[in-house]
Design brief:
Layout lengths: L3 E10 L2 E11 L4 E5 L6 H8 L7 E6 L2 E2 L4 H6 L1 E4 L11 H11 L6 H10 L16 H14 L4 E5 L7 H16 L3 E6 L2 H7 L2 E6 L2 E7 L5 H13 L1
Parallel strand pairs: 3-8, 3-9, 6-7, 7-8
Antiparallel strand pairs: 1-2, 1-4, 4-5, 9-10
Helix pairs in contact: 3-4, 3-5, 4-5, 5-6
């Protein structure tokens, strides 16, 4: 069974067709990069998968749960990292993780929290630090640990490398690979063509809500990917 299935999904806001006839299937462990400029429909697509928006046509299922008919069930299978991961600033990384895991229906102890934070790439010396002092990259790692704690089937990333330095972006790539190796499917909406080539198995290019190209990432070198992206946006 596919982890994520979008079948002929469309949504419009008045006269604006934000997403039109979009189909996309992700298998367990697959990393898919959804490319496109601002306004292409990437974030709208993520919000439909999360059940925050209901498509006008088509269907979305997450590990067997219908995102429109059962949005809570679908979200229970998803780990979501928005562009800015919001944590409780007065709680430590361990406390944030145990709190959000509890909200997802899983009670974990401090030892398990430490293990998950380490698997997500957060250095041990940061586990008991207050999250209010965390960088964006550190907050993302806690967010990934939360996804691991709730045993998510799907990880959604919205512009994950925006505002990250090269070292933090590289750490994020390692975390994405580790999630993939655990069988978690990853859908990342991004402008970062270099990172796409670094971690994605497949990629799709959205323009004005429509999928205009889809490729295996391994078939394109970075220069060819950039040329394809610019060509598809211009055509």
């Amino acid at each position: 069974m596919s982890t994520l299935e979008l079948d002929s999904v469309s949504i419009a806001f008045g006269a604006v067709h934000a997403v039109e006839d979009l189909s996309l299937h992700l298998q367990p462990g697959e990393v898919y990069a959804l490319l496109g400029p601002n306004g292409a429909g990437k974030t709208t697509t993520l919000n439909m998968i999360l059940g925050f928006l209901r498509p006008d046509r088509g269907s979305i299922t997450v590990a067997g749960a219908d995102a429109a008919a059962d949005p809570l069930g679908a979200r229970a299978r998803i780990g979501y990292l928005p562009e800015t991961v919001m944590l409780h600033p007065s709680l430590s990384a361990i406390e944030n993780l145990t709190y959000f895991a509890l909200l997802a229906g899983r009670k974990i102890d401090a030892a398990t929290a430490r293990q998950l934070l380490s698997e997500a790439g957060l250095q041990p010396e940061a586990h008991e630090r207050l999250a209010g002092n965390f960088s964006k990259g550190m907050r993302q790692k806690v967010g990934v640990a939360i996804a691991l704690a709730k045993q998510a089937h799907l990880l959604l990333l919205d512009e994950p490398t925006s505002g990250l330095d090269a070292s933090a972006a590289n750490d994020l790539s390692n975390v994405i690979r580790a999630a993939s190796e655990r069988g978690i499917a990853v859908l990342m909406a991004t402008h970062d063509l270099f990172r796409v080539k670094d971690v994605a198995h497949r990629l799709g290019i959205l323009r004005a809500g429509r999928m205009v190209d889809e490729r295996d990432a391994a078939t394109l070198d970075p220069v060819a990917l950039e040329q394809l992206y610019l060509q598809r946006l211009a055509s």
